[in-house]
Write a structure and sequence with these properties.
- The protein is mainly α.
- It has a domain of 130 residues.
- Helices cover 64% and strands 0% of the residues.
- The protein is built from eight helices and no strands.
- Helix 3 crosses helix 6 and helix 5 packs antiparallel against helix 6.
- The chain is globular, with a radius of gyration of 18 Å.
Length: 202
């Protein structure tokens, strides 16, 4: 699929759904940083976790997010399109972004959808981590906010002249050279571990 830098996809005929499929990047970033902060504050204030535990489980949650980001990008957003339904879902989830990578209003899931996902993760991780869920999910949501920030910056701005340039290069390879490598956006960590780094970077 050849990228179109000037257009934008229309995903739904219904104008309400179409409008709801778009979001300014500042909205979800603000929402999830606020929720992450609130979880840490609540967990510490009501003695579910102490400060050291909050810090440790926060970073664990952030690490977990980078893995979820990688797996979702590789196996969900780039799912096989061998049936019409899969092709439609893949285009809704991610294909439209590859076709119109400069469409700034489609660089994040609509907040309604992402909040539902966040709620589900909270209850799942509560079963796994118990009271430490406040630190874990705070880190997870902060990781998502950082992912959104990086993803937006990579598509909206020229690469900086510092070490962060590697993120721009990494994601550009995924978009413009080989969509089957460089799945990590906020970090190339899991590309290194799972063998999907671009060939020149190996």
């Amino acid at each position: 699929m050849k990228p179109n830098h000037k257009g934008r996809a229309r995903l739904f005929k219904n104008p309400v759904l179409e409008k709801m499929s778009r979001t300014h990047i500042a909205l979800p970033i603000s929402i999830f940083i606020a929720i992450a902060t609130g979880l840490i504050y609540y967990g510490i204030t009501y003695s579910f976790i102490n400060v050291i535990e909050a810090i440790g489980f926060f970073f664990l949650g952030w690490l977990i997010f980078t893995l979820i980001e990688y797996l979702a990008h590789r196996y969900v957003f780039h799912m096989s399109t061998d049936t019409p339904l899969k092709a439609r879902l893949q285009y809704l989830f991610h294909g439209n972004h590859h076709e119109f990578p400069k469409d700034k209003d489609r660089l994040a899931m609509p907040p309604i959808v992402s909040i539902l996902y966040a709620s589900a993760f909270f209850f799942i991780f509560k079963l796994i981590f118990g009271q430490f869920v406040f630190g874990v999910v705070a880190g997870l949501l902060f990781g998502y906010a950082m992912y959104l920030f990086v993803h937006y910056a990579v598509h909206a701005y020229a690469p900086p002249k510092n070490s962060l340039k590697t993120l721009w290069v990494h994601h550009s390879i995924h978009h413009y050279k080989d969509p089957h490598v460089a799945y990590g956006v906020s970090s190339p960590l899991w590309d290194y571990i799972l063998g999907t780094m671009p060939k020149k970077a190996k």
